[in-house]
Amino acid sequence: MKLLKFLSVTCAVLLASLAPQVYCDSHRHSRRLTGVSNDPTIFGNTLNFWRKLENGWDLTRGATTHSISLPTPQNGPIVIQPNASALVIIDMQNFFLHESLNGDPKGRAIVPTTITLMHAFRNAGMPVLWTNWGMTDYDIINAPPAFIQGFSSDDTSLTSFGSEMGMVVVPESDQSIAATSTTPGPNITIDAGRKLTRGAWNAQPWGDLFKEQIEGVANGTDFYFNKNRLSGMWGASTPMQTWLQDNSMTTLFFGGVNIDQCVFGTLLDAYYKAYDVILVDDVSATTSPSFATQMVDYNVGLDGWRVNSTDILPALMNASMT
């Protein structure tokens, strides 16, 4: 019995003396997991990782052939793989932009810059993805009450998704503007269609963007995805997310309207689903107060990147020529 007691005390003393060492060692040398690099400049696993460079970040996941280095105002430059990168344009539709539907002039103002950026992405071999409101009857039936109320014109459910928006009168020569007493030439009357439903005129891209979308899709450089929530990436999966997965996309650039609503919502969901997110400020706009844009800019800057198209156009144009 004395021997057993001695051994018990001895073991307790030994364990007590070893415990602090084990504790310290565990904090000094974190246990590495299978598939996770010991290289402190690698963030992620063997299939999905960033590499911290001496100046900036490599987002190519090791696929550096034909990669492009893009300057960014903060945390840059970033190196991207064109075969895994895309430009996402959100909600640049007649409903949100056309003046006959009380569309936002700030949204209309970014259209030329948006088109220039789209051309640069296409020329560099990177796809342009359009994700817009395009509701079906099934979507409307299953829409949450909060969404139905939020898109009501008079605080009744009768003027929300799927309601008839009536006729609009536009110049025959330019359907992107409203007809007035000073617009030249004859006018035409267009059925705006049911609110934000697929195929309706009010849900089409505004002005020259519609032509860009039609031609881009026909040429195979652009892809169009309907959505039924603010985010084009919400839930378990969406048409755009399925396409991104099927085509091994990792790095997404975002623009459109409204920056603090559908743009930010789509960007956030993409971030939660492990995509690299870059907000392009000068192809984004909103009807909200300026502090809303400041909030988005601040938060995107924490875990992603913000750029202006003028920052990255030279590198994209140079890539298209190589």
What does this entry look like structurally?
The protein has 322 residues and is of the alpha/beta class. The protein is 37% helix and 20% strand. The protein is built from eleven helices and 13 strands. The chain has helices spanning 2-28, 94-97, 105-109, 111-123, 137-141, 145-150, 208-219, 239-246, 259-272, 290-303, 309-320; strands at residues 42-44, 49-53, 56-58, 68-70, 78-80, 85-90, 128-133, 167-171, 187-191, 222-227, 251-257, 276-285, 305-307. The strands form three sheets. A six-stranded parallel beta sheet has the order 10-7-6-11-12-13, with helices on both faces. A five-stranded mixed beta sheet has the order 1-2-3-5-4. Strands 8-9 form a two-stranded antiparallel ribbon. Helix 4 (111-123) packs parallel to helix 11. The longest helix has 27 residues, at 2-28. Mean pLDDT is 90; it is low at 1-7 and 13-29. Pfam families: Isochorismatase. Belongs to the isochorismatase family. It comes from Lentinula boryana. Residues 1-24 form the signal peptide.
Rounded average pLDDT: 90
As residue ranges, the low-confidence spans are 1-7, 13-29
Structural class: alpha/beta
Estimate the global geometry from the Cα principal axes.
globular
Q: Major β-sheet, in short?
A: 6 strands, parallel
* Order of helix and strand elements from N to C terminus: HEEEEEEHHHEHHEEHEHEHEHEH
Oligomer: single chain
| Number of H/I helices | 11
Helix content: 25-40%
Topology, number of strands? 13
